[in-house]
Amino acid sequence: MRIATVSLLAAVIAAPSVAGAQKQVVVGQGQQVSATLSPGTRAGNVIYTSGQLGVSRTDPDSSIVGQTKRALENVQKVVEAGGSSMANVLKCTVFLTDVKDFQGMNSAYTQFFPKEPPARSTVVVAALVSSAAKVEIECIAAAK
Fold first, then answer.
1. Using the 8-state DSSP alphabet, how is residue 2 labeled?
2. Bigger pLDDT: 23 vs 21
3. What is the CATH superfamily name and number for domain 3-142?
4. pTM for this one?
5. 62 CB contacts (<8 Å, ≥6 apart)?
């Protein structure tokens, strides 16, 4: 385990209760807050990203690799806006609409986490909020 990761993990564990920490909305570059959700929130030394889709109105990509890459780029924007990096992501949840897309998702996912990947759950769901979406990814990251 890298020293920086150990230090950040220790900071998260030693931090005051997240419940007692001030909640701060985190908005990545090019993202917006809506009436019902924020791209992310930070409480103490922890950043929580909302589920990030891999679809785009301006640059559609129907491949699972392309959508996974875009979803993780969106996660990265939130994590960096919260003062951290993808190296400090501790846990991700991946939602897929087709189990057959697992290998394609994994090939793009490993580009963002080439060493010491975070803990991950992968869940197959009937549908996502956008009918064109094949994947949605949410993550939790440590921050200083």
1. -
2. 23
3. RutC-like (3.30.1330.40)
4. 0.86
5. 132, 134
